[in-house]
Automatic annotation (TrEMBL):
Alphabetized PANTHER family for the sequence: ABC TRANSPORTER ATP-BINDING PROTEIN, ABC TRANSPORTER ATP-BINDING PROTEIN NATA
An MF annotation (GO) of this entry: ATP binding
Pfam family, one: ABC_tran
SMART domains given in the database record: AAA
ABC transporter domain residues: 5-230
Tagged with keyword ATP-binding: yes
Keyword vocabulary terms for this entry: ATP-binding, Nucleotide-binding, Transport
Name under which the protein is recorded: ABC-2 type transport system ATP-binding protein
Similarity comment: family membership: Belongs to the ABC transporter superfamily.
InterPro entries: AAA+_ATPase (IPR003593), ABC_transporter-like_ATP-bd (IPR003439), ABC_transporter-like_CS (IPR017871), ABC_transporter_ATP-binding (IPR050763), P-loop_NTPase (IPR027417)
Source organism superkingdom: Bacteria
PROSITE patterns: ABC_TRANSPORTER_1, ABC_TRANSPORTER_2
């Protein structure tokens, strides 16, 4: 399997504070990779450095063999990004926003199919501003998938979605993975990580504290429940077993 995302010795500091400390990441084609860590651990900074929207202090990054800083235009034909908040006009409706996104790319997926897949088709003519938080979140995933990408970056994948919607999103992403999509995600939901991720990396204050599979993470910890396992790696304090 070819390596789709390769990051070597990525480092980013603000002033004297190191936010991301010498991180190496390797994601193979068709894999789902989960970057985990507490609030402020450095996940979004890592993603922004990988995408070239933030300048790292050090490190080599390649996506699909391209450099996100210098091959930006070509690379983003193949890369989808889920934004937490997109910039859109106040009154724009769902179909218009999808069409605007389609115009940015040469080869696109039919957005109506994606809206159907994500249960949003009945909102196609609604103003985006009238969607619920969860519906907007799903729409941002749809926008990320419109370019028919080979790789997709999903930051806080299902934050704000209800249980049904989260499961629907997992199903959609599993189907897209079967078709060869490489997925790089961050999530605070360990059930989601267990359901989707082939490989995970746990960051603690910008340092890698675990890199491997969920099964390996469990095996190398004193716990069996993955949420306990995650906390054991990611948190400073030991878990109080009486809780
Ligand atoms: N422009 C900036 N200047 C100074 N510090 C910053 C800047 N951007 C981010 N940080 C700091 O970097 C740290 C990591 O932030 P980051 O957003 O990468 O964390 P995260 O793991 O994505 O957190 P969350 O789970 O809350 O989204 C935080 O302490 C944040 O305050």
């Amino acid at each position: 399997m070819e390596t789709t995302i390769r990051v070597e010795k990525l480092k980013k500091s603000y002033g004297n504070t190191t936010i991301v400390n010498n991180i190496d990441i390797s994601v193979k084609s068709g894999e789902v990779f989960g970057l985990l860590g507490a609030n402020g651990a450095g996940k979004s900074t890592t993603i922004e450095c990988i995408l070239g929207t933030r300048k790292p202090d050090n490190g080599t990054i390649s996506i699909l063999g391209m450099n996100p800083q210098t091959d930006r235009k070509k690379l983003f034909e193949y890369v989808g990004v889920q934004f937490q908040e997109a910039n859109y006009q106040d009154k724009i409706c769902v179909s218009e926003l999808c069409e605007e996104t389609q115009c940015l790319y040469k080869e696109v997926t039919d957005y109506n199919e994606l809206l159907k897949l994500f249960g949003l088709i009945e909102k196609v003519n609604s103003p985006v501003s009238e969607l619920s938080g969860g519906q907007k979140q799903k729409l941002f995933i749809v926008l990320a998938l419109i370019p028919n990408p080979k790789v997709v970056f999903l930051d806080e994948l299902t934050t704000g979605l209800d249980t049904r919607a989260r499961h629907d999103v997992w199903k959609c992403l599993s189907d897209l993975k079967q078709k060869g999509l490489t997925i790089f995600l961050t999530s605070h939901f360990m059930d989601e990580v267990e359901a989707l991720c082939d490989k995970i990396m746990i960051l603690k204050k910008g340092n890698i504290v675990f890199n491997g599979t969920v099964e390996e993470a469990i095996k190398n910890s004193p716990y069996e429940n993955f949420e306990d396992v995650y906390l054991w790696y990611a948190e400073e304090e030991k878990i109080d077993e009486s809780i």
